[in-house]
Amino acid sequence: MGLTRVVLGVLALVTLCVPLGSLVVDAVMEKIDGGGLINLGNRERTWTPYMSLSHLLSEIESITSYFSFRTFDPEGALFYGDTDNGEDWFVLFLRDGVPEMQIGKGDVLVSVAGGHKLNDGLWHKLELHSEGKFVVLKVDDHRELAMGLHSHEPDTSKEGYIRLALGGILVSEKKLLLPLNPLLDGCVKGGRWLNLSTLWDSTPRKTAMSCFPNIKAGSFFAGTGLAIFNTSDLPGVDPKEERIIITVNTSSTTLNGTILSLRSLQSHSTVLSVAKDTNSGMMIFKVNTETTPINEKFDEDLISFNVIIHKTSVAFETKNVSSESHLRSGDYSSILAAWNEGMLLAFGGVPEDGLDSGSDYMEGCLDTIFIQGQKIDLDQASFKDASVSSHSCPV
Q1: Smallest Cα–Cα separation from 84: which of 138, 153, 139?
Q2: Taking a C-beta distance cutoff of 8 angstroms, is the pair 15, 197 a contact?
Q3: Contact, 23 vs 210, CB < 8 A?
Q4: Is 17 a residue whose pLDDT tops 50?
Q5: Which of 5, 204, 299, 311 counts the highest number of beta carbons within 10 A?
Q6: Does 129 or 307 have the greater pLDDT score?
Q7: Residue 132 to residue 331: CA distance in whole angstroms
Q8: Where does the signal sequence lie (predicted)?
């Protein structure tokens, strides 16, 4: 079980590309043919790969593969391969935008990371090939990383099967050297991988979205789902200021529906929401049962606002050129107390009893979200509907 065997499993992975129009559905799985374009995001399950296959090692002849990859996502699993049913494995992923490779063989783990950040929203050509006992990663035709592992065990590289996966891993995440958020909002295309033409197995997705022709950084909501955080997992109430500040910036010209909502876990009621009405173009600010239409004219391509919760007031504050604040006074100390204990803060709709259900879903792109000044990543949400793209929006 030498390194060659692991390398073969690795290199067979590298060029998975799938056209949405080539899906063939059976009773349980979809059969997918490689060679086109595929969106790695929009999946319900965290670690489960988008697609996988198993193939005889003895039929592997080529050990060079390549594909093009595009993302704004700083972290996530790109592809994975193993032999011996997961005893020997390899994974390539991004961490802080930088490519990282890991090999696991028995109790030995090898990890290497480095090179240029790849989460710039541009297409990059990635190539993997073997150089003796090393796996080499090239990015845009430049040698980026090399990782080697020497074993004194007998080389059985042509025995058994390889398992391949894209967008996840097939072993326990506990085997990784460092923790990782595996969800990856990105696309691959133009793949050429080894000599295999085997169809891949894929779990049908609730919302199968194509790769946008042109993208910008942001979080895209398709109008069919939302992302929900438990506020106890978010930055807490500032003890000096005794206030909560939620900041939303968006340049989406077609934004409509509920942008954010805050719900009590005790009373199951929505205590606050901000929505944009499609017909009037006005923002609707609601606190408990009292509604305040915001008559201010927003720029055509810019909506930026703060929601500020104090003990004695809640404010909707616009951040446009003519900044304006809409204040509602009252006793809101219970919201501050409940925030640290846990409430449901949703973006893109109003959650109902089940986290996977809601209403008044938003359609459009949120460029950035900040809570207490800290940027929020939707991949960290307690629940995120598969229709929500965490890091990319169509231009």
Answers
A1: 153
A2: no
A3: no
A4: no
A5: 5
A6: 307
A7: 70
A8: 1-17
Specify the pLDDT at position 245.
Answer: 94
Angstrom CA distances, 367 to 125, 153, 217, 341, 391, stand at: 27, 52, 7, 28, 9
Q: Lowest mean pLDDT of 94-103, 142-151, 215-224, name the range.
A: 142-151
> Which regions of the chain carry the CATH code 2.60.120.200?
3-211, 217-394
For residue 303 the two structure tokens come to 């909506």
Strands (E), 157-243: 161-166, 186-193, 200-202, 215-217, 219-222, 227-230
| Protein fold of 217-394 | Jelly Rolls (2.60.120)
Are the C-beta atoms of residues 285 and 326 closer than 8 Å to each other?
yes
Q: Which residue type is seen at 365?
A: C
Q: What's the one-letter identity of residue 84?
A: D
Q: Cα–Cα distances in Å, from 248 out to 111, 230, 304, 350?
A: 37, 18, 6, 17
Mean pLDDT of 213-240: 91
Q: Output Rg (C-alpha) for the chain, integer angstroms.
A: 24
What is the CATH architecture assignment of 3-211?
Sandwich (2.60)
Instruction: Fill in the DSSP letter of residue 251.
Output: -
How many alpha carbons lie under 13 Å from residue 348 in its C-beta half-sphere?
31
Nearest of 220, 216, 190, 198 to residue 207 by alpha carbon: 220
Q: Are 191 and 34 in contact (CB under 8 A)?
A: yes
Give the DSSP letter string of 77-131.
EEEEEEEGGGTEEEEEEEETTEEEEEEEETTEEEEEE-SS---SSS-EEEEEEEE
243 contacts 254 by C-beta, under 8 angstroms: no
From the list 265, 253, 262, 249, the residue with the least C-alpha distance to 309 is: 262
For residues 298 and 256, what is the distance between their CA atoms, to the nearest angstrom? 14
Tell me: the pLDDT tens digits for 286-342?
998 888 887 765 655 578 899 999 989 999 988 765 556 788 888 899 999 899 899
- Amino acid letter at 260? L
Q: Is the pLDDT of residue 189 over 70?
A: yes
